[in-house]
Specification:
By secondary structure, the protein is mostly helical. Helix content is 68%, strand content 0%. The chain has 18 helices and no strands.
């Protein structure tokens, strides 16, 4: 229990550093990682190993693939078409992006990949409408985090109910059972509510212009360049489409699909080496060890709680020892959603709100 309190205190310090903006977010995360190692919450090998996890590779690679699409003329054409169809209405444009993000989130097995897919168009549209990216990017980020995997039967967790039933049966519980549709009604209702809040309420709470410069947006912005030649233009489109299809079908692990796409984008000259480096998503990369700790350490410490008995809570507690939490927290679950929301928000405009 003592270690759990230390871990919670370190995360509280990290959040305070995030909100204070005295230190860049990425370095605040590194400070937290060092404190976790010094206090024994995590060993150095485990902390460093998370930088090479499949989640980190997927994040960095997807940023490069999306930047490759942004380098083409398709983004401009699609943004212009959307603005014409919506008569330039901010609410209609935002609703279109939020719904598109929600639909993608039912098929793509990565929250961050889903968000990065729509990022180039959202950013381009904000520029054309002469509004701060924070007004539109953050609501879209909320949709990618909270509205993914709503319809369980068509999502990446379609078979999880079998695993949950196995957990219950292993503890002699046969009175109730999960089905493939058990979670969907509640998730869909929650998703609809989230969509409405993201479109009609959240933008009113965001500043028209950030209080501080949105460094990540400006750092990633590419200088105006001559259009790509026809071959590279088509490669920019094609790689993005193939990566999306690869993520949806699951023909290969997500990190392999996005990594191959990123390598092709750079190797064929769609992006230069420096442009690829500028679009790696350093903030999310450096925050990964803290996500890992929130996922793995805290639930395990909760199993030591004196309130645990032989009832339903004990079922969750014992499974937590193996990193399986009956759907409460898994690899793309609450821990990842929380850290992803913080990083995405900061990365693309929430600086002004904080």
């Amino acid at each position: 229990m003592e270690q759990m309190y230390i871990c919670l205190a370190i995360f509280a310090i990290m959040v305070i550093l995030f909100l204070s903006r005295k230190i860049p977010m990425a370095f605040s995360a590194l400070i937290a990682m060092v404190l976790l190692i010094i206090t024994g919450c995590i060993d150095a090998n485990s902390a460093l190993a998370t930088f090479g996890s499949t989640t980190v590779i997927t994040m960095a690679s997807m940023y490069i693939v999306a930047a490759g699409l942004a380098r083409t003329q398709m983004i401009n054409k699609m943004s212009n078409a959307l603005l014409k169809a919506t008569s330039g209405s901010f609410t209609k444009v935002l609703m279109t992006y939020v719904i598109a993000t929600t639909i993608l989130g039912q098929f793509v097995p990565s929250i961050i990949a889903t968000f990065v897919m729509v990022t180039p168009m959202v950013k381009n549209t904000c520029e054309k409408m002469n509004i701060s990216p924070s007004k539109m990017m953050f609501p879209v980020a909320i949709a990618s985090v909270s509205c993914s995997f709503l319809v369980i039967p068509i999502g990446p967790y379609a078979a999880d109910y079998v695993m949950y039933n196995g957990y219950l049966e292993s503890y002699g519980w046969y009175d109730t059972a999960f089905t493939i549709w058990t979670d969907t009604p509640v998730l869909v209702i929650t998703g609809i509510f989230t969509i409405l809040v993201s479109v009609f309420l959240v933008p009113k709470l965001l500043p028209d212009q950030p209080d501080v410069e949105i460094g990540e947006i400006k750092r990633r912005a590419m200088k105006q360049k001559e259009p790509l030649d026809p071959v590279r233009e088509m490669l920019g489109y094609g790689v993005f489409v193939v990566v999306i299809l690869g993520l949806m079908t699951g023909i290969l692990p997500a990190w392999e699909v996005t990594m191959i796409g990123a390598l092709v984008v750079v190797a064929t000259g769609v992006l230069t080496e420096q442009e690829a480096i500028d679009n790696l998503g350093l903030c999310l990369f450096l925050c990964q060890p803290q996500r890992h700790q929130l996922h793995d350490l805290l639930p395990c410490n909760l199993t030591d709680c004196s309130l645990m008995d032989q009832g339903g809570i004990d079922i969750i507690g014992n499974q937590a020892r193996n990193g399986e939490y009956l759907g409460i927290v898994h690899d793309d679950g609450i821990a990842l959603r929380v850290s992803a929301a913080l990083c995405i928000a900061y990365d693309f405009g929430i600086e002004g709100l904080l």
